[in-house]
Amino acid sequence: MKGYLNNLKLRNKFYLLFFVGVLIPMVITDWMILHNIIQSSNNTLRSEMEKCALAVEYGLQKNLEYPVTIAHNLYKSQVMEDFLNQEYKSPADYYNAFYDMKSSLLFDSNIGIEGGTLSIYADNPTIVNGSGFYRLDKESEWYQAFEQEKRQSSLHFIYEQSSQTDRSMIRKVVLYMRMDMDLFRGCEKILRLELDYSNLAAVVDELKELNRNYKVTVCMDTTIVLDKNSSLEKGLPFKEVQQLEKGVYRKVTRLYDQDLTINVVPEKKRQWEFFGSNGLRFAIMLLINIVLPMIMLRMIESSITKRIQFLESAFERKPENDELELITRIEGNDEVTSLMRSYNRMAIRMNELIMTVYKDKLHEQEINIARQNAELLALHSQINPHFLFNALESIRMHSLMRGETETAEMVGKLAVMERTYVNWGGDAVSISKEMDFVEAYLLLQKYRFGDRLNYKITVDPDCEQFGIPKLTIVTFVENACIHGVEQKSTPTWIFIRASKKNGWMRIEIEDTGEGMDEKTLSDLNERVKNVTIEDMKNKKHVGMMNAYLRLKKMTKGLVRFEITSEERVGTVVKIEMPLEIRI
Question: Which percentage of the chain shows pLDDT scores above 70?
């Protein structure tokens, strides 16, 4: 972590300190406070929605309580139980028993239930249908549905015909109850209480009142059985729940073995009421906790980093007339100001030392350059007679082995070579011209070796104008002829290649001559690697050492040089120079 901080710029360190030490803790704290406020608001809102749901639940129970209580009292009556279980021999017997039961219970066909009708069904075939009592038809649709539910009672909100005579569709509230208080003594009996949907008017009015702040619906499964838009007069079918809104509060209430779900959703303006009333507080909190510290940070950062950047540019500025420039504008009285003043004192001292150290060093370098030029001239004077001796020796050997007919042509080749380099001039030459010289030399050697010498020169077009020290490549080619071709009686090839690869110039001189053993190869590589001017006094491999030393000096030591060889297979000399070094 320390190393990472050391690599950060001062400005980034300020911002890192602000974010880690100020902003993040502040955001976490503000978030916790805001979360608690929102949680408190949500709890208040939930409490209000819960009260709203309880009010609706109470309204439903209250509106159904009176008629259901009458039904309960009726189906618990022993007189009613005996009346329904009695088997009657004739309709007259049934009617006599009916009037006796009616007088005992003060029973009326509608049982005094306002807006509702009570019907009792019994599995007794001797009962005569009418006056609120009916034989139980187990094949009827409503009985099959009630039987599948396997409940003692069942509450339904249905949409069906008003009556057999009135075929208009209306909403109804129907309650089925099994009359089994005496453990199913006698026949099966079911009480059916049918209420007019308008009996729930009080509940709908309460929903309308609650809907000023909340949307409230009462659902049975996926059917909306009650809401503020429920029509109490018109015979409209019940709507289905399309999709429940987010943030809904649900309360499940159980009425007569039937689950009803009360859904309470706050109006959107109610949901945003908290943020509207506290918006100014949020803005002030944001301004104090984030904006003001950020502005202060920018001011402090600008006060420090700008002066440090100015000081940095003073260090990086190239001195004119070999002198460092002084900082003329210094503001403030802090540590940065002290640093700028220290720079001025250092610059004054450095300017004094430049005259005594830097210029003396420059003079010493000029002396070293002159000495190196003298060494190169010594190498130049050494390479000319050495190479000329070998060329003349080839002519002499050829003249002894054959007649005088081709001597003139060989001497002509030698004359071309000598005319090219009689005036040494600069030490650099293009690879194209060097290869012309190599080819002239190989043609001269072919007079000597005949079919024993074969060669191939391959140069990429991009390499032809690349500079190289004079007589570098031909020196290694000469070495291949003397130590490779001359010592082998069978035909031999010499390959010279120049190419570019990965930003480097690569030159290869390969022969298929006798090669070298491992010890000789190792000694030669070691000598080449550590060659100096003093080593030129040693006459062995003087041409190769000379060429490598000039390559090393002219490439500032960046040249790569490698010799590989295998006995009776051949030798390869590899030279690599960076392309950015132009000789």
Answer: 68
